[in-house]
From TrEMBL:
It comes from Streptomyces evansiae. Belongs to the glycosyltransferase 87 family. This is Glycosyltransferase 87 family protein. Pfam families: GT87. Residues 486-504 have a biased composition (Basic and acidic residues).
Amino acid sequence: MAVMTSTRVQQSGPVLPTEEDEVAAEGSELLGGPVGRHALLGFTWWTPVRVVALVALGLFALGMVQKIPCYNGGWFFGANAQYTHACYSDIPHLFQGRGFADGLVPYFDRLNGDMEYLEYPVLTGVFMEVASWLTPGGDDLVHREQVYWLVNSGMLMICAVVLAVCVSRTHRRRPWDGLLVALAPAAALTATINWDLLAVALTAVAMLLWSRKRSFGFGVLLGLATAAKLYPVLLLGPVLLLCWRTGRWREFGKALGGTAAAWLLVNLPVILLAPDGWAKFYTFSQERGVDFGSFWLILSQRLSSPPSTDTINTLATLLMVLACALLAVLTLTAPRRPRFAQLAFLVVAAFILTNKVYSPQYVLWLVPLAALARPRWRDFLIWQAGEVLYFLGIWLYLAYTSGGKGAMGLSQEGYHLAILCHLLTTLYLCAVVVRDILLPERDPVRASGDDDPSGGVLDGAPDLHVYGRAARPPQHSGEIYTDWGKGPEERPESFTDEERERRA
């Protein structure tokens, strides 16, 4: 254990991606080229946040347009058409399949079939129910399903704009990083497949509050996000590790308390009044077998004796625990404290990579975290290319398996390649983020002079608990260098002989 100080180099003014990112500079040629030295930044109506919001609206609308073949009949009159056109969505199918068309109340009323109750977390169930209230009645079920999808899409569009705006405002000096979210092709393709955008938007609001040093508010929004989808609770892990390194236990307590309070506020009424319906999501997640998109599926389909669901549950849990342990070691031994967004991305990516199912819309979980953790267009687009390939791969595989003899699409081997594209590009982005942690001078955010803009109370905070080589900084000219908050150009190993003599 060592006591170390950290000084943040104060900077002012926005960071322009066209000045620090070659891909952004090249791409800007479509709009007239990089920003010039005489540009009036911040003095027009077209502020970065407004531009990001409008771009997010435009891309979301294009994603809706991509679903037109299904809207015009693919969801209802041809099961294979929704796969060949890659426009599948759970939303219209579950309108009737989960009882919303019949006015059933989620968690309280049993469904027809083997599901018994709605298998979604409570806040997502509320979202689905509100959309059903806004859907008009009538005898034409096909038309009602279409309207239900449109209503949900409108509500999810609001979530998409909230998400992009929050990412744009989380790093105060880097508002243009929100364009990574707004222009993410995989996000546009998957936004209306399911209801994940609700949890993703709430998580983005939570991270914005954390960056503004509102620890309890962060916890409240994270609790609401966890009530909509399980993965957001994983962000408490990075908060715990970073508060451990900096000794900010009070802030972690506020975050944990806010999360627990908000989650209980949403879930407790349903737990007390409809315990069986509430528990369905958790029992379903535990009991479901290996499903699409995971490397477990590749193993199960290639092994002559595939492991049981219980075995895979155990192995997936052990792998996730191992990944968390490695992240803890990385956090407490890194030469400079990792940024919150970096650890948030890594822990959610670890969950996705080890999970027994990967639905195409799960990419939404990582998009804002990737934009904050590694705001570089090249790496982001490499990862997005893998996700788009997987998006196409799963629908072509389903077209092949459900279309009968002679159906066009991807065979099992082709689908396995699509899964590998998703896994390898996600691992690539993880590797780049880990490299940035181990070599902070390679981190785009810190290279521009910031410490941890999304870290809130952690931004510029001194380190109190550090282990390994980072706890024993190098000595130069009789002085011990303890300021890991400085950039590489300010470290003793980069000093000239004259500078070292002057400091001595």
